[in-house]
Design brief:
Strand content: 5-15%
Shape: globular
Distance between the termini: 53 Å
Largest sheet: 7 strands, mixed
Order of helices and strands: HEEHEHEHEEEH
Organism: Polaribacter cellanae
Protein name: Membrane or secreted protein
CATH superfamily: Glutaredoxin
CATH topology: Glutaredoxin
Number of helices: 5
Helix content: 40-55%
Number of domains: 1
Number of strands: 7
């Protein structure tokens, strides 16, 4: 049968979209889940009882001893991540800082809050040992210098660290444990996408759970 231009157009308009739909509609979990790279991170409630990682999607950052020097990254995080997810349920940023840096933190909060609703920014003071213990529980390939790292970390509702097991830019084992807040490109291209994947993962699980309940109800279980 001769392939004409008309047949090609018809295929592209009608047949190809149908094939794509059938492929996408097969299976209930036909998407890539965001890998768990570290299980059971120490919960922030051990440092501040009123805060927790449980049942939240948390972006965690360590402010360090020189907040003024490093504050550019926190502004990037606010603009590129926080403002995009502030309306999402259970989203929060946990910013951990040394207890003797209250004045610097107050100044940072004042600058960020000038154009931002700070409702889901959570600043947590901790002593040096607490900060190191929490950071070590992430089990990353990153270093904590002067209680600071330029990387931020994505923790799921069960307190597990999420990231990437295959990352083309990683020089160690191909794993990505944290996202560089000094890089607007990395926040946009990686962290923002990974948070969306994690939210969709929870949405799909919730949807499947409701569908299973409906199926059980229909058969009288």
């Amino acid at each position: 049968m001769k392939i004409t231009e008309k047949r090609v157009v018809l295929f592209l308009l009608f047949i190809f979209p149908l094939i794509c739909f059938l492929i996408l509609s097969t299976g209930k979990n036909n998407f890539t889940k965001l890998p768990v790279v570290t299980e059971n991170v120490i919960d922030i409630s051990l440092i501040k009882s009123s805060k927790t990682f449980k049942d939240h999607i948390s972006v965690v950052c360590f402010l360090g001893d020189n907040i003024e020097l490093n504050k550019g990254g926190f502004f990037n995080l606010n603009e590129k991540i926080y403002k995009n997810f502030i309306k999402y349920k259970q989203f929060q940023i946990i910013a951990i800082y040394p207890k003797d840096k209250e004045v610097e933190v107050t100044a940072l909060k004042k600058e960020i809050s000038a154009f931002t609703d700070m409702a889901k920014w959570n600043f947590v003071a901790a002593n040096k040992e607490e900060i190191k213990i929490l950071f070590d529980s992430l089990k990353t390939n990153e270093n904590l210098a002067n209680l600071y790292t330029s990387k931020v970390f994505l923790i799921d509702k069960k307190g597990n660290l999420r990231g990437r097991t295959i990352d083309k830019d990683s020089t160690i084992d191909g794993k990505l444990f944290g996202y560089n807040m000094q890089s607007v490109a990395e926040l946009n291209a990686k962290l923002k996408d990974d948070i969306k994947v994690l939210y969709y993962e929870y949405y799909a699980a919730f949807k499947n759970k409701n569908e299973n309940k409906a199926d059980r109800k229909e058969v009288g279980l």
